[in-house]
Design goal:
Radius of gyration: 12 Å
Number of strands: 7
CATH superfamily: Beta-grasp domain
Structural class: mainly beta
Number of helices: 2
Distance between the termini: 23 Å
CATH architecture: Roll
Shape: globular
Largest sheet: 5 strands, mixed
Strand order of the largest sheet: 2-1-7-3-5
Strand content: 35-45%
CATH class: Alpha Beta
Number of domains: 1
Helix content: 10-25%
CATH topology: Ubiquitin-like (UB roll)
Length: about 90
């Protein structure tokens, strides 16, 4: 599946397999300096907005319900469900 990450005004693209890997871990493995701290769904440092596509959050101990309804996710807990996902750290 195709992933596009918008970070600091730049869009980076990569492909990843649907194998249980979180978007953040896949981004880091492609040398993308995405923000994170705990990787456990607790700190919200990796908070980003899904602009296109669908993802599933495994765990969420940081975002409020209204943030989730607005499309925000924790990228450390995000598994892509659609063939293309666009996530923005800039919003």
């Amino acid at each position: 599946m195709e992933i596009q990450l918008k970070l600091d005004g730049t869009t980076r693209s990569f492909t990843m397999q649907r194998d249980g890997t979180a978007v953040l871990d896949a981004a880091l493995s492609h040398d993308i300096d995405a923000p994170y701290s705990c990787k456990g769904g607790i700190c919200s440092t990796c908070r980003a907005k899904v602009v296109e596509g669908e993802v599933e959050m495994i765990s969420n101990h940081a975002l409020e319900d209204y943030e989730v309804r607005a499309g925000y996710v924790l990228s450390c807990q995000c598994l892509p469900l659609s063939e293309k996902v666009v996530i923005s750290y800039d919003e």
